[in-house]
TrEMBL record:
It comes from the Bacteria. Coiled coil: none annotated. One of its GO terms (molecular function) is porin activity. Keywords: Signal. This is Porin.
Length: 379
């Protein structure tokens, strides 16, 4: 999930308590305009090989508004909520108690924080991502098919794209979103560490079908909750800031995923990082895939590795990253570049580019590019 959308996420990460000046209701927003070239439609050519159709450069306009509310009880317990209107307008009404519609709600006391709603699972919360600097209008640098954004499940997303890919994969191995999107996470901050536990329920807590399965449902499969545990560290050694994490997330009859990542920032403005994840696919899920997509199989283990480098100085920020998913049946890789020039007052010029390559066993490979260029306004 895009952490920048949730004002409470930073609060959860630090397990801080709202100060007096923070109490009340805050309204923030952003708007973007420019041009972009998205991913083309995905399919197969006359020979049965992977084929990405071309897409046209077009106008890009986007706007989002977030409401953030905070308060503090007499005993010092702090509480708050935020609602991202962009997410709430995506057919997910936030006023429905059994539907996650972009709302995030938390309570915090001392080093302990409980967050529910549109928040990250323990793995996504603990592991730093490799988009280390800069940003683009269409998230080219973090939406390429080799990027691990800690959200979703690449195996599931890969199969779901046997229709189209417009905007890229929701790439990750954490299993976040493979349920109904309602996540409960408990964080405890101690010294430089944050310990996290999370659970995402299946669709409305159901236990008789596989939640999130848009490619069909096989009789006899249960909808199991997703559990996660993670540890994050943030500290400084000899002027070098270190962000690191290790995590595990699991869904019975789907997969077990392990991950670790580290990023270092130097006083010169340079930052570097690396990430690795491994997901062991359950036999039940492999069988389900074989039934839903005849002739296409995913076996055993999926691995991901990625590298990132960034540079920020004065008004300029530039980031480059590369990542790759692979197993015996497919390889999805890509790199992304983002550059930002801060014009002051919340206005910035942004540009991004990505290159994406997908290879399927027995179906060849193909690649596509995306880019975006324009202005972002933060309010």
């Amino acid at each position: 999930m895009k952490k920048l959308l949730f004002a409470s996420t930073a609060l959860v990460a630090s397990a801080g308590i709202a100060s007096a000046q923070d109490l009340g209701v805050a309204l923030t927003g952003m708007a973007e305009m420019g041009i972009y070239k998205p991913a083309g439609a995905f399919g197969f050519d006359a020979n049965g090989d992977v084929d990405f159709g071309d897409s046209d450069t077009q106008f890009f306009t986007d706007i989002d508004v977030t409401f953030t509310m905070t308060g503090e009880a007499d005993n010092g317990l702090s509480f708050g909520a935020s609602i991202d209107i962009d997410e709430a307008g995506n057919g997910q009404p936030f006023e429905s108690p059994n539907t996650q519609g972009g709302e995030t709600i938390f309570v915090s006391f001392g080093g302990a924080t409980l967050t529910m709603g549109d928040t990250d699972g323990a793995m996504d919360a603990a592991l730093p991502e490799m988009g280390l600097a800069g940003g683009s209008l269409n998230d080219d640098e973090t939406a390429h098919i080799g990027f691990n954004d800690g959200d979703g499940y690449s195996l599931y997303e890969l199969l779901d794209t046997l229709g189209t890919i417009n905007g890229g994969f929701d790439s990750g191995l954490s299993l976040d979103g493979n349920g109904d999107g309602q996540i409960a996470r408990f964080d405890y901050a101690y010294s430089s560490f944050v310990f996290s536990l999370s659970m995402e329920q299946a669709e409305d807590g159901a236990d008789d079908y596989l939640a999130g399965n848009n490619i069909g449902v096989t009789a006899g499969f249960d909808a199991n909750p997703i559990y996660g545990v993670g540890v994050a560290y943030a500290g400084e050694f000899s002027g070098v800031s270190i962000d690191a994490g290790i995590a595990y997330q699991t869904q019975e009859d789907v997969a077990d995923t392990y991950g670790l990542a580290v990023a270092a920032g130097f006083a010169s403005g340079l930052s570097v990082g690396a990430t690795y994840a491994q997901s062991d696919v359950a036999d039940e899920w492999e069988d389900n895939i074989a039934l839903q997509v005849p002739g296409f199989a995913i076996d055993n283990t999926i691995t991901h590795w990625g590298l990132g480098v960034g540079y920020s100085m004065n008004n300029i920020a530039v980031g480059l990253n590369y990542g790759e998913y692979s197993n015996d049946d497919f390889e999805a890789s890509g790199y992304g570049l983002a550059a930002t020039y801060d014009l002051g007052g919340g206005l910035s010029l942004r540009g991004g580019y990505s290159n994406n390559t997908l290879e399927l066993d027995g179906a060849g490979e193909d690649d596509y590019d995306t880019f975006s260029l324009g202005l972002r306004m933060n309010f």
